[in-house]
Design brief:
It is built from 19 helices and 24 strands. By secondary structure, the chain is α+β, with helices and mostly antiparallel strands. The protein has a domain at 46-147 and 262-353 and 464-488 and 556-621: FAD/NAD(P)-binding domain (3-Layer(bba) Sandwich). Helix 6 (172-182) crosses helix 19. It is globular. It binds flavin-adenine dinucleotide. Flavin-adenine dinucleotide is lined by residues 63-69, 87-90, 135-138, 142-144, 146-150, 152, 274-276, 311-314, 316, 320, 553-554, 587-588, 598-601, 603. Belongs to the GMC oxidoreductase family. Residues 58-353 form the Glucose-methanol-choline oxidoreductase N-terminal domain. Residues 466-607 form the Glucose-methanol-choline oxidoreductase C-terminal domain. Pfam families: GMC_oxred_C, GMC_oxred_N.
Length: 629
C-alpha cells in the first residue's frame, strides 16, 4: 500500500502520466508482438480509403455501425442482389481497447459521445455541475466496442411482457433462437446447454483473469444462500463468474464479430467518420428517400431504394428522427422543423439501469485490484506472451447475479442485479474514476481520498426495472449538438425503495465469515451532504444515491416499440416507424421496457431479428442466392 502522505496531487499527476505512458508502451508492444490481435489486414476499411465512391443509390442504408447496426449490415448484405451502405460517425476500433482491462481508454476520448444529463437537484449532486456522465461508443462497433462485454440477456418474463404489450413475435420463445443464432459459446459445460448456440459470429468466453478477492466474494455469496448457476439459462436467480463477448481472451465487439469476416463482400460499403444529420422523407408519399451526412467536411446526400434502418443508439436514433421531422410536433415546430407526420412520442420512455455503488468496504489482505497491481509490466508481459494475467479481466464486473427485492413481482423475476467488484472508487487513487466520473474535488477528497489505494471491494447493486421515466429533446437543429437528456431518476418512490434495498447487499456480504476473515470494513467516511444522517440508515442511503449513483449506461426505450393501439409507440413490432415508409429503427431504443440484464446481448438479438423481418418483407429469404455466414 502507498503511504497516506504520498497521496497528494503530484502523485496523482505522476500516476496519470504513468497510465498514459503505459498505454503507448502497450500499443507499441502489441504491434510488435501480437499482430494477430492488431489484425491489420482483417480490419474493416472505409470505402474511400479503398479508393471507392458512394454508389448512385443503395437498397438499404444502415445508420450507425454499433452493436445492432453491424449485425443488420452483415445480415442484409447476405443477399447478393442488395447493395448495403453502413454509415458510422466514429472511426475504427483501437488496438489497446482489445485488452479487456483497458476498456476505460475508450471513455472520455474521441471514441465516446460524452453525453451529460441536464442538471437536476435529485441526483448526481457529487458530480461536476450536477450533471451525470453518460457514455456511449462513437466508434466502429459502437458501444459493444467500449462495453464491459458482460453477457446477460434478461429474464424470460421481460420478453413475454413485451409480447403481452401487443408486440407479436417478441416473446421469450420467439427471441431465444435469435440469441442462439448469433452465439458461439466456447465455455465448457455451456456448449451443450439448450439456452446457448454454437457456430454463430459472437464468441462467448470467460474472462482470463479474476482477482484473488473474487474467491472470498463468491464464498460470501454462497454463505448468503445464493446458488451459482448460468444466469442466462433456466433460472436467473443466482450468481456466476461473469462471461462475455471475448475471443481468445480479447474483446469481441460486433464490428469484430459481424463486419470483419464479411469486409470483402462486394455489395457492402462501410463509411466511417460519416455523421448522419437526417433522413429526407418525402412529405407527400411519406417515404424515406435519402440520407444526409457529413464526412470529413463534405455533406453527402445518398439515395435509398428500399429502406433506411436507424441503429444510432438510444440518444442518437431519436435525435436523427426528430431532425428528420418525426417526433413531438410542438417541439419540432418550436425549433422550426416541419413535422412530416402529425405526432410521435420520439424521445419519451427513456429508461436506464442505475446502481447503488460507491459504498466501499476495505479489506486487510492484499487480494484486491489496485491500480498498480493491474497496470503492471508483468501484467503486460503476461498479456503479450500468454494471453492471460491481470489485464485480461474487467475488475468492475468479475461476478454477476440477481436478487429479488421485497417488492419484486415474483421471486423468480428478480429486480436487482449485482456486479461483484474487487476494486472501488478509491483503489486507483483518483487517477481514473475520479476524472472519468467527474467527481467534485470536495466529494472525492472527503469520501475516497482517505482510503486511496487501499485494497477494497464494492458491489454495483442496480435497479433493473425502473418505474421512473425520463425523456430527451433536441437542443437545436444542429445535429452536432447533443440532445438535452432528462433521465428523471428516482422520481417514482418504488425506485428509491429498491435501490436502498440493493445498497444494503454489500453490507450483508461484508458480514459473512469469508469477508470478515480478511477484515472487511465499511469506509467510515460519510457521503458529502449526508453527514447529518445515521450511517447506512434508509435516509442516509437515499441521500448517498442522490449524491452519486452509477449508471450502467444501458439506456433504452426512446423509440418505443408497440402496437398501433399504443399511443406512445414510435415503431411497430416489425420496427417500422409509424406513418413513414421505408424507415425502421433497430437498437436499444425500441425496447418498450428495459430488460432485467444487460442491453448488449439483446441489441444483437434485435439486429438479428429485424434482419429476418426485412428479408421476409422483401421476400428475400432464399439462402441459395445469398452469402451465408
Ligand atoms: C462503458 C459501458 C459499458 C457497458 N457494459 C455493458 C456490459 O458489460 N453488458 C451489457 O449488456 N451492456 C453493457 N453496456 C450497454 C450496452 O453495451 C449498450 O446498451 C448497447 O451496446 C447499445 O447498442 P445499440 O446498438 O443500441 O447502440 P450503439 O452500440 O451505441 O450503436 C450506435 C452507433 O451509432 C453511431 N451513431 C450515432 N449517431 C450517429 C450519427 N448521427 N451518424 C452516424 N453514426 C451514428 C454510434 O457512433 C454508434 O456506433 C455498456 C455500456 C457502456 C457505455
Amino acid at each position: 500500500m502507498i503511504p497516506a502522505w504520498l497521496v497528494t496531487v503530484p502523485t496523482t499527476a505522476l500516476l496519470f502520466l504513468f497510465y498514459v505512458t503505459f498505454y503507448h508502451d502497450m500499443e507499441f508492444a502489441m504491434w510488435m508482438y501480437r499482430p494477430d490481435i492488431v489484425d491489420a489486414n482483417g480490419r474493416v476499411r472505409d470505402l474511400q480509403e479503398l479508393g471507392r465512391h458512394f454508389r448512385d443509390g443503395y437498397d438499404f442504408i444502415v445508420v450507425g455501425a454499433g452493436t445492432a447496426g453491424c449485425v443488420v449490415a452483415n445480415r442484409l448484405s447476405e443477399v447478393k442482389g442488395w447493395k448495403v451502405l453502413l454509415l458510422e460517425a466514429g472511426r475504427d476500433e483501437t488496438v489497446v481497447g482489445e485488452v479487456p482491462a483497458m476498456m476505460t481508454t475508450y471513455q472520455t476520448t474521441t471514441t465516446d459521445w460524452m453525453y451529460k444529463t441536464e442538471p437536476d437537484p435529485g441526483y448526481c449532486r457529487g458530480i461536476d455541475d450536477g450533471r451525470c456522465i453518460w457514455r456511449s461508443g462513437k466508434v466502429l462497433g459502437g458501444t459493444s466496442t467500449m462495453s464491459a462485454m458482460v453477457y446477460t440477456r434478461g429474464n424470460k418474463r421481460d420478453y413475454d411482457k413485451w409480447k403481452c404489450m401487443g408486440n407479436d413475435g417478441w416473446s421469450y420463445k420467439d427471441v431465444l433462437p435469435y440469441f442462439k443464432k448469433s452465439e458461439d459459446m466456447r465455455i465448457d459445460g455451456l456448449r451443450d446447454s439448450p439456452y446457448h448456440g454454437i457456430g454463430g459470429y459472437v464468441t462467448l468466453e470467460e474472462y482470463r483473469y479474476y482477482s484473488p478477492l473474487i474467491k472470498y466474494l463468491f464464498k460470501g455469496i454462497e454463505e448468503l444462500g445464493y446458488t451459482l448457476r448460468d444466469i442466462n439459462g433456466e433460472s436467473q436467480n443466482g450468481f456466476m463468474h461473469s462471461y462475455g463477448t471475448l475471443r481468445n481472451g480479447f474483446r469481441c465487439s460486433t464490428a469484430k464479430a459481424f463486419l470483419r469476416p464479411v469486409r470483402d463482400r462486394p455489395n457492402l460499403d462501410v463509411s466511417l467518420e460519416s455523421h448522419v444529420e437526417s433522413v429526407i422523407i418525402d412529405p407527400l408519399s411519406k417515404t424515406a428517400g435519402e440520407v444526409v451526412f457529413v464526412k470529413r467536411g463534405y455533406r453527402y446526400h445518398v439515395s435509398v431504394h428500399k429502406e433506411v434502418i436507424i441503429s444510432a443508439g438510444v440518444i442518437n436514433s431519436p435525435q436523427i428522427l426528430m431532425l428528420s421531422g418525426v417526433g413531438p410536433a410542438k417541439h419540432l415546430k418550436e425549433l422550426g422543423i416541419y413535422p412530416v407526420i402529425s405526432d410521435l412520442k420520439v424521445g419519451d420512455n427513456l429508461q436506464d439501469n442505475i446502481c447503488a455503488s460507491g459504498i466501499v468496504y476495505t479489506v486487510d489482505a492484499p487480494v484486491g485490484t489496485t491500480l498498480l497491481n493491474f497496470l503492471s509490466f508483468s501484467g503486460l508481459s503476461d498479456m503479450l506472451f500468454n494471453s492471460n494475467g491481470t489485464l485480461m479481466g474487467i475488475p468492475a464486473a468479475h461476478g454477476v447475479g440477481f436478487q429479488s427485492s421485497s417488492i419484486a413481482d415474483s421471486p423468480d423475476y428478480p429486480d436487482i442485479k449485482h456486479y461483484l467488484a474487487p476494486m472501488a472508487e478509491n483503489t486507483e487513487g483518483g487517477v481514473i474514476f475520479k476524472y472519468m466520473n467527474r467527481f467534485t474535488d470536495s466529494f472525492y477528497n472527503k469520501v475516497y481520498k482517505p482510503i486511496a489505494f487501499k485494497d477494497s471491494f464494492m458491489t454495483w447493486s442496480c435497479l433493473m426495472r425502473p418505474k421512473s421515466r425520463g425523456y430527451l429533446r433536441l437542443r437545436s437543429r444542429n445535429s452536432t449538438l447533443h440532445p438535452m437528456i432528462y433521465p428523471k431518476y428516482m422520481t417514482h418512490p418504488d425506485d428509491v425503495k429498491v435501490l436502498v434495498e440493493a445498497a444494503r447487499f454489500s453490507g450483508k456480504l461484508s458480514k459473512t465469515f469469508a469477508l470478515r476473515k480478511i477484515g472487511a470494513k465499511l469506509n467510515p467516511n460519510k457521503f458529502l451532504g449526508c453527514e447529518h444522517l445515521e450511517m447506512m440508515s434508509d435516509e442516509y442511503l437515499e441521500c448517498s444515491l442522490r449524491t452519486y449513483l452509477m449508471s450502467l449506461w444501458q439506456f433504452a426505450g426512446t423509440c418505443k416499440m408497440g402496437p398501433a393501439t399504443d399511443p406512445d409507440a414510435v415503431v411497430d413490432p416489425r420496427l417500422r416507424v409509424y406513418g413513414v415508409r421505408g424507415l425502421r429503427v433497430a437498437d436499444a431504443s425500441i425496447m418498450p421496457n428495459i430488460i432485467t440484464g444487460g442491453t448488449y446481448a439483446p441489441c444483437i438479438m434485435i439486429g438479428e431479428k429485424v434482419s429476418d423481418m426485412i428479408k421476409d418483407d422483401w421476400h428475400q429469404h432464399f439462402y441459395n442466392q445469398s452469402f451465408s455466414g
